[in-house]
């Protein structure tokens, strides 16, 4: 019964692993709770949003386990480690640890000394300790790494590494060292800080056996490339197309005219569940229209035409749960196809996406568009979150027309909103009068709703009073006005 009780507690506490305050409180209840919580907290103790540079207790715990000869060596170098009266700690904390975050470790180590040289010595010894104690390493964030930990005698623990976060400024030799040991990385996150390719990362990718998740984000100031930093890495990635399920890319400088390699490789990732392309990346849309991703669940592209998105939805396998598009071309759409394309897009969604939960949608304030939107709401019963963008590019709408469109939208939501809908985001092209908003809120029953808008009108006293009234009644969970860039889903 005691074993059953502890196992049950463990499952409960695991649900709180993102809530450190609650877990820390649970430590104080009794010995059983303490013994159950400690492995959860220490599995990845670097994940929490806290100031690690002030955590002297973590520095004490980590240095406590250093071998005596190491402590004596550091002492001879003039490094004073914290003294403690304890002969042993209440738990073997580091043995539960399955992760190393180099930046956070360096922050904690800096507690011991302000000297750069002393910190270097401490890092060397503490990394060696962690590699020795953390026998089943799963996660490594090696940004800011200055030690080749891969050559420590105990580095075989890195064989079990599942997730790696790194940046391209790290010397290739570090990745060669890692590639000797690690072949089972499933999640690879790369921050690009360099203007030339990192051949060590290329080799590391080539040697992975089950790479599923790949994320690349540019973070460079200069755009003058001596050699394209992308091409070799992404061609190596295509060799893993049979296993890659999630592709997340944020380029700064690539466009469809200058870098044709991206157009060639994108269709190869036929098993994608997530396709996310952020920032200003121009893609040959004809290729996207013909690409088939039967397993696609998340489609998130910042700049894409509506007809291209419609084709991708139609070619999907009916598993899409999120469509988050910024509709860059909407601001420049000047031909007569917009009305037709946007109607087709709405239809493709409710015909091909029965599982859709999160959706950004662009449409006109025409009778046909409102009718198709209502049809979408009735058929997509899993819908939880909506971002609505209304396009009035052919004529300048009057105040009365904008208010009329807002009233139509609210009436459709009252009549057709699916039971799971909990969040609506919209720009100020949709505007609701005080009367229409109150009528809507009176009829919105049974589920607390979050509303996020870019329109400052709702900061007015009458609106604030109305909103607060329905917050107290439990109809509104959150209602805020925010900048346009924050309206888009993160």
UniProtKB/TrEMBL annotation:
**What InterPro entries does this protein map onto?**
LRR_dom_sf (IPR032675)
Q: What are the top taxonomic ranks of the organism?
A: Eukaryota, Fungi, Fungi incertae sedis, Mucoromycota, Glomeromycotina
**Name of the protein this chain belongs to:** F-box domain-containing protein
């Amino acid at each position: 019964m005691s074993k059953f009780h502890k196992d049950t507690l463990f499952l409960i506490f695991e649900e709180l692993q993102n809530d450190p305050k609650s877990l820390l409180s649970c430590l104080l209840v009794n010995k059983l709770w303490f013994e159950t919580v400690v492995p959860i907290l220490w599995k990845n103790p670097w994940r929490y949003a806290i100031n690690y540079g002030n955590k002297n207790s973590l520095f004490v715990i980590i240095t406590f386990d250093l071998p005596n000869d190491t402590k004596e060596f550091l002492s001879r170098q003039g490094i004073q480690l914290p003294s403690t009266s304890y002969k042993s700690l209440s738990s073997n904390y580091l043995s539960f640890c399955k992760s190393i975050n180099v930046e956070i470790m360096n922050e904690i180590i800096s507690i011991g000394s302000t000297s750069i040289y002393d910190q270097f010595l401490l890092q060397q010894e503490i990394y060696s300790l962690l590699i020795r104690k953390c026998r089943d390493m799963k996660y490594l964030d090696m940004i800011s790494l200055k030690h080749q930990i891969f050559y420590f005698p105990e580095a075989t623990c890195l064989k079990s590494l599942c997730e790696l976060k790194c940046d391209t400024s790290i010397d290739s030799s570090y990745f060669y060292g890692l590639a000797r040991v690690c072949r089972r990385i499933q999640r690879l996150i790369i921050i690009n800080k360099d203007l030339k390719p990192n051949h060590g990362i290329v080799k590391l990718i080539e040697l992975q056996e089950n790479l599923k998740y790949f994320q690349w984000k540019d973070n460079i100031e200069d755009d003058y490339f001596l050699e394209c930093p992308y091409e070799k890495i992404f061609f190596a990635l295509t060799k893993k197309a049979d296993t890659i399920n999630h592709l997340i890319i944020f380029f700064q400088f690539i466009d469809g005219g200058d870098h044709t390699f991206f157009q060639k490789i994108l269709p190869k990732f036929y098993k994608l569940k997530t396709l996310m392309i952020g920032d200003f990346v121009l893609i040959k849309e004809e290729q996207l229209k013909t690409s088939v991703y039967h397993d696609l669940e998340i489609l998130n592209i910042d700049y894409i035409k509506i007809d291209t998105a419609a084709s991708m939805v139609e070619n999907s396998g009916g598993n899409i749960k999120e469509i988050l598009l910024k509709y860059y071309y909407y601001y420049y759409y000047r031909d007569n196809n917009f009305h037709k394309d946007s109607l087709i897009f709405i239809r493709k969604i409710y015909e091909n996406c029965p599982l859709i939960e999160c959706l950004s949608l662009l449409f006109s304030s025409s009778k046909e568009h409102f009718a198709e939107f209502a049809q979408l709401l009735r058929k997509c019963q899993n819908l939880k979150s909506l971002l609505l963008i209304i396009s009035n590019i052919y004529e300048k709408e009057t105040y009365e027309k904008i208010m009329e469109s807002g009233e139509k939208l609210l009436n459709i939501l009252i009549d057709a909103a699916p039971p799971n809908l909990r969040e609506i985001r919209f720009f100020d092209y949709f505007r609701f009068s005080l009367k229409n908003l109150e009528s809507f809120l009176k009829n919105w029953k049974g589920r607390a709703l979050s509303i996020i808008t870019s329109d400052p009108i709702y900061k007015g006293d009458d609106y604030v009073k109305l909103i607060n009234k329905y917050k107290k009644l439990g109809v509104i969970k959150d209602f805020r006005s925010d900048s346009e860039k924050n309206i888009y889903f993160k």
